[in-house]
Amino acid sequence: MDDQYTTERDSFGRLLADRQVWRQAATIPAAGELTARWLEGRSQYQPGTFTPDIDAETAPIAGLLAELNRNGLFTKESQPGLLDGAGAQRAYVTGFCTSESAGRLLDLSARTEFVTVAHAPGEMSRASIPVTLQEAEIVTVLGTSESPIEADQLQDWSAEANEALALVLAESWYVEIFDPVWGRDGVLLPAVLDALTAD
User: Fold this and answer.
1) CA pair distance 189, 180, nearest whole angstrom
2) What is the model's pLDDT at position 39?
3) Are strands 173-178 and 92-97 parallel, antiparallel or unpaired?
4) Which of 25, 44, 106, 113 could form a disulfide with 52 if both were Cys (CB 3.0 to 4.6 A apart)?
5) 155 vs 54, residue with greater confidence
């Protein structure tokens, strides 16, 4: 690999050498490990995230997110709990997983106040659970399945990662877990990790 290739970036500033590794990721654990590396700043490419690095809001929770990715939840989106003068956020995390992991996260929802919305492979759902308010306006909602079951979604995942991973994700569960308490932080992600790693 020549030096030009190892420093070449796409139009979003993502490092193309790091993208090449995603061409080999064909399982949820492999995608989770690569996502953990990105969260830790050891990679500058993440499929579907059009920036080479995590944002400032994610930095405080990046370590826990990396652990989730290494324990069966290939995370897609997340945010910490937050309260400020202009708005409020509920802590949440979403991602792809196996049916066993989805079952553990549904059990977490049954045992605690945390809410898990689980979407079976191929399921299309359109719910609207507010998780971010800005100036009294709802700006982020959960409840919509994200499985790449439609042709354009499969094509996007194939282009950003590879076709094999796109097909695996199409057959995976998609889960959304959130803390119902507005602004509370530091509680949800450890509970999700405990649920995924419990014997």
Assistant:
1) 13
2) 98
3) antiparallel
4) 44
5) 54
